[in-house]
Design brief:
Radius of gyration: 29 Å
Order of helices and strands: HHHHEEHHHHHEHHEHHHEEH
Strand order of the largest sheet: 1-2
Distance between the termini: 63 Å
Strand content: 5-15%
Helix content: 55-70%
Number of domains: 3
Structural class: mainly alpha
């Protein structure tokens, strides 16, 4: 009986030898150009090692998404194939052929798979880097128009600051309305159907499940409410015992106090801009926690929205500091990467 594995290796090595001759620029006859000959060898090699290439692409779902590839199964013929932008696959095959032609080593299935996997990983990291260079305004149409699985992959690989600013843009598109989530709302069974609502839901879910945030709130048995800030009065977020659950309270207390003082500077007369009672009423809590919050350092960044209004931005470190203050903890070391 013929050994199919040996036959496959012989054919593969024959293609590698043909590739070596092409690269050596040996004299050849025929009407085909060198580029056409190279394309023919690459296509033949990819067909010969289709299984290894499929395994490499299938083993990197994130790379597959970022490189525009998909694996298709034809149930009728039980055949699996790769579709989409094959640039990265063909580049991986080219690198295998270059390596074999240069080193003259015996070709193995694992070598083909490893080379295609490495090429896909390289392309994946380049795509992630490009996405992280985009502004929120550039990202907005990208995630709005991408298929949901692709949008999820993009959102998972953004920086915290990109997600934060993208969330702000989405909230503006929603009319600036306050959006409130509970932890139960962020489970898979409550995934929204509406596209824009889903993007807001998914970004909030990523923020809340970030290990650096989750570790600060997971041992809190009280009911947690997540608020995407909009216009209007802050709701009274309390548990059944009347205790405040607003983990953003310290940030909001500083924000409301700062806005009142800044507004007075520009001719908007607000009576007693440093009133603790006014801030407490706005947050729906008593004066005591507000006084304690205002004594603590709760950083915030104000920036013009270009329309005569002001946006407030918080970093992940700022959010975690607010949680610490609310729960009465002393400032701890900054988490890695913050």
């Amino acid at each position: 009986m013929r050994n199919l594995a040996v036959d496959k290796r012989v054919r593969g090595e024959g293609l590698c030898e043909l590739w070596r001759l092409l690269k050596a620029e040996a004299p050849r006859s025929g009407a085909n150009s060198d580029e056409e000959r190279e394309d023919h060898v690459i296509a033949a090699f990819a067909e010969e090692y289709a299984q290894e290439i499929i395994e490499a692409v299938g083993g990197d779902p994130v790379g597959r998404m970022f490189c525009g590839l998909r694996i298709v199964v034809n149930a009728k013929h039980e055949r699996v194939r790769i579709e989409g932008d094959l640039t990265v696959v063909l580049e991986g095959v080219r690198r295998v052929l270059d390596s074999c032609a240069k080193n003259c080593k015996r070709l193995t299935d694992e070598q083909v798979k490893a080379c295609v996997s490495a090429t896909l990983a390289e392309f994946r990291e380049k795509q992630i880097a490009r996405v992280r260079e985009r502004t929120p305004a550039e990202l907005l149409p990208l995630v709005l128009n991408a298929a949901r699985p692709m949008a999820a992959v993009i959102l998972r690989h953004l920086t915290f600051e990109q997600r934060r600013d993208l969330l702000w843009l989405l909230q503006e598109r929603a009319g600036g309305k306050r959006i409130i989530f509970s932890p139960d709302d962020l489970t898979a069974e409550h995934e929204p159907d509406d596209r824009e609502r889903w993007l807001i839901w998914y970004i909030v879910r990523l923020i809340v499940t970030d290990p650096r945030v989750k570790g600060r709130i997971s041992d809190d048995s009280r009911r947690l409410t997540i608020v995407v800030l909009g216009e209007g009065k802050q709701p009274n977020l309390t548990d059944t015992g009347g205790r405040s659950l607003n983990l953003a309270g310290p940030q909001l207390a500083h924000l409301f106090m700062t806005l009142a003082k800044e507004s007075n500077k520009y001719g908007h007369q607000i009576k007693d801009p440093e009133s603790v009672s006014r801030v407490a009423r706005s947050l729906g809590v008593s004066r005591a926690p507000v006084k304690r919050w205002l004594k603590e350092d709760a950083p915030l960044e104000l920036a013009s929205d270009g329309k005569g209004g002001v946006n407030v931005r918080f970093t992940l470190t700022d959010m975690m500091r607010s949680i610490e203050i609310t729960r009465g903890r002393k400032r701890g070391p900054k988490p890695n990467g913050s």
